[in-house]
Amino acid sequence: MTILEQEENIRQDQEDSAQEAMEQETATHGRPAPAPTAGNQTLVGIDLGTCRTVVIGADGQELEIRSVVGYPKDIISRQAVGDGPLFGHEALEKRNFLELCYPLAEGVIRDASERDYQAARELIHHVVAGIKENSGGGPVSGIIGVPARASLMNKEVLLQVAREVMDTTLVVSEPFMVAYALGKLNRCIIVDIGAGTVDVCCMKGSVPAPEDQVTTFKGGDYLDERLEAAILRRHPGVQITRSLACRIKEEHAFVGEPERPVEVTLRVDGKPVRFDVTEELRTVCESMVPNIVEQVETLIASFDPEDQEETLKNIYLAGCGSRIRGLDRMLTNALQDYGDVRITCVDDPERIGAKGALKLALEVPPGHWPEIGLMFG
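Above: the chain sequence. Below: its structure as tokens.
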């Protein structure tokens, strides 16, 4: 090869490289910077909740959706809203056209019917597809939270669904995700109060063992059911539904002495009437306190004696139930026999689980994920 031919080849290679760089710049112009990934995979943290599902991606994407799926009732409904399914807020807004399905019971996929399983599958597909669409369609891997004592069968069913849309998935307990987000991995207790479950977990410097975690089912849904019944007993003839009871709870829930009376407008025979529901709401909300205290007492005793004093100063409330006004103070008072007890409500309680799951996915290489929980991929 002559010198002129060599120079021509070098010039052609430089032009090709420049053209590739220009095409790459054009392809990415106006798009967000690529997400942190494991290989080429976008990493996400998912808190799959009975009431709402939260997904947070390493590229900054955040998705929060009510865990409800709606299916058109008939041909007229399909003409109005399409073939469906509809999800989250949209499904609730158009509920008169739809059969609503809440596929997650007590924090796991319901096994009551094929429809529940299908709805859970479509919900998971929907949220992961939203992340994929906004990240260029690449593969997605991540960590999903489940109740502390979810059964092996529950976890395997969830992994079976996640396998259809994710490359690698790890399932871990929700309170552990909260602890990881807080950086509180030793001498600490997490109380995660969700809609379906209340999870209590003690952190002792390693991945919590089954005996370090307790799940009870007196969460937000339990309170909604009891509040609806209490209002009907006190005010026969009032028109109230479970969703209305939930709304009252979310806006006004408290324990202890009320700051002001809780008055709400409900309907009787179609007419609006004001009702005072202060006592009903307080009684219902306080009904969960003894159970939480009992579980915390049990787990405190499981720590080494020299760790118990420090642990009692590091009790954290998370989940939507941590927003119940006065709950931290009432629990502190109930545990006063143990000495100096400090209970803290976490910031952003509905999203902290997903944040912890993402943090875990980013900081622990996928090769070590089997050491933490059940996974595939």
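Residues 1-8, 17-38 have pLDDT under 50 and may be disordered.
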